[in-house]
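Marked as duplicate of an earlier ticket. Keeping the data here for the record.
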Amino acid sequence: MTNWSELNQDLVVEIAEQIKFYQDFVAFRWVCTSWRSATNIKNFRYKFDQMPLLLLPPDDDGDGNRCRFFNPTNAMTRQFCLPEAAAADDNKRCMSSKGWLLSMARDLSLTLVHPFSCAEIELSNVKAFEDWYVNLSNITGKGNFIEKFVLTMSNLLESDFAVMVIYGSPRKLAYFKRGQKNWITADNSFWVFDVVYYKDKFYAVDAVGEIMAWDLSGDDPSVGELVAKMPYEIVDSMVFEKLYLVESDGTLLVVWRRRVYPSENYNSCCGTYAFQVFKVDLFANTWMEIKDIGNRALFLGHNSSLSVQVLDSSICIPNSIYFTDDSWCSYMARRRRGGGKDMGVYNIQDGSIVPYFKGKFRHHCRIAPPTWVECSFN
């Protein structure tokens, strides 16, 4: 019988350089110690042709220590042993930003986990929020204390970084910088829909279409500045809707998600029927609706919103929005066994929607909804 660990290392490197998908490359390196020592990220030659991966909720019958990642490019799912991030109980939930996962455990500890290198960074836990107990008491389920998080960079191990989260009720902002002991609540942040790190500042959009900016390197980083406001003719027609902030090819975009909402008894799910994309000039406070974002695709949901370039060799659809189900009312639907069904690819030009994932989710989807994870190579 062949001992694969004794395979010539030059041949191992040659094979590794032919692998096209990042999760396959990671799985290849984990076959044995000798293969792992013979290869590194420099041997992965397709870094610029990677779509984000979809972190799936765990199977009811699966291993509670494993995470499942779905690749839309080849419609394949791979499992990785990642107990730090796996939703093994109903209080653990993961969110993603710049290739890292933020895991909140039953004991309220917060950990940044890189899913493919297994690197970990401990953050101050939930009790380091100044109003943690009141906010935790006002929401359903500990796992929903943090709605979304955004990192300033992907290379966290060698750099000082900052993270901002949407948390509590009403949805407020708090930030944490390496070396801090406590999370600092950002002033004047209420009912925040989304937050993005853009041109060295954090920008957030709220339920009335106002965009605030926080400069964490400034003299008073907790104080935000109003930098733009959605025109009244748009705001008046968007009650209880969802807005996203995303940087795309150097431009700040606001994306408005249009949904059909369920009945009051939560027995049906929300359904997305359209998106509107606005290009925002922060200096002039001008909002221009656009139907073409070029050869790029947006990935929206519980993840930090992101835009990726679509290469000619990619199967990713340009000028489109890949979206996941991030409506709380869908996950509370009783007869539908929780959310995770309002997902698809929206064509910005013609308004059509097609599916990209045809699998089914079980009850764990309520606390661990499907989430996009950016491929990070740092």
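See parent ticket for discussion. The first strand starts at residue 53 and ends at 56.
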